Amino acid sequence: MLLNKFIKPSLFVQLCRRNIQSKAQKRPPLAFAFDIDGVIMRGPEPLPKARNALRILDGNNSLNAKIPYILLTNGGGQTEFDRAKKLSSRLDTQISPSQIIQAHTVLKDYVDAYADKTVLCLGGVGDTMRLVAESYGFHKAYTTTDVLAWNSSIWPFIHVTESDLASAKPIDFSRTPISAVFVFHDPRNWGIDVQIICDVLQSGGLLGGPWVEPRTQDVELVFCNPDLLWKSDFSRPRLGQGAFKASFQAVYSMLTGSEYPYTQFGKPTQSTYDYARRVLHDLLDRSYGPGSGTHPRMYMIGDNPESDIAGANAAGWSSVLVHTGVYDPTTGPPRHVPTHEAEDVEEAVVWAIEREREMVRQIEEEEN
């Protein structure tokens, strides 16, 4: 403030404008979204080049800029805070919960409509999905375990343990209609969850109630992950939530003669990529200030052509397919063609940054 006394007002304004312009020039021309499994991690361990890739984004790059990124996964089963904490430890870098978009993160947009309505949250282990739902703001979230604790005869092929009963949230489902079924994460016991969803939808949300003509206005059904396959630390891809959805719809169709309408989130859906774009823009604005209408090029780095690449291409993003996960280049070209292919995530990051740097150089040359 003392310096301002010795600067003419007009000169002070000019210096402020130059300072603002200088900050605007540092705003990077790109932002990244990374899949996790098969790109950054394999099972519980980081892939060999993952740490280097994230260090490059932290400023050690030819743009001399800290480049924002998110981790966009069709996985889930825990809070974004817990996942960020685990990944930060494994990858030796600080990752914020705001950088984590799991398959079910987009359900935060449903809180206003269902905060005080009874919802069934499927998938995951024990009561973890209820805890995730409550962290989002759903005040009346219940799980498969709660249903079994209420009436174990709904699925008589499993023994309800004392630990299950201890973690259950007491409720009389015969008097409490369920307004929505959210398949947050991959169900652990498909039989139980298929049975319960069918019961809920055919009774208008009231378990044990008389069968009624299923109507979507009675119960909303949402799946968060369309992946048929996903890459774990096993040698071959595993069946995912997409396979569970197909199993449920097959059974429901045999029972009713029709498919129940549902909402699908997760890659490659447009809604998930729109949500991710919004988060990335917020990260950019927090780091560099409002973008004055400028939009960085979005890069999706993924290992699954059917989710990562298909979704990025449809959203108008640039896409890079790595060879460290689901996609096996020896089986032939991918059905969804990426902007570029790379052996690993570090190579993908370097290629994207150099591509953008060259574009910036060409624009500057044309302007001069």
Question: How would you characterize the overall build of this protein?
Answer:
- There is one protein chain.
- By secondary structure, the chain is α/β, with parallel strands linked by helices.
- The protein has two domains: 174 residues, Rossmann fold (3-Layer(aba) Sandwich), CATH 3.40.50; 160 residues, Rossmann fold, CATH 3.40.50.1000.
- The protein is 40% helix and 13% strand.
- It contains twelve helices and 15 strands.
- The strands form four sheets. The chain has a six-stranded parallel β-sheet, sandwiched between helices. It has a five-stranded parallel β-sheet with strand order 7-6-8-9-12, sandwiched between helices. It has a two-stranded antiparallel ribbon with strand order 2-3.
- Helix 2 packs parallel to helix 12 and helix 8 crosses helix 9.
- The radius of gyration is 24 Å and the shape is elongated.
- The N terminus is likely disordered.
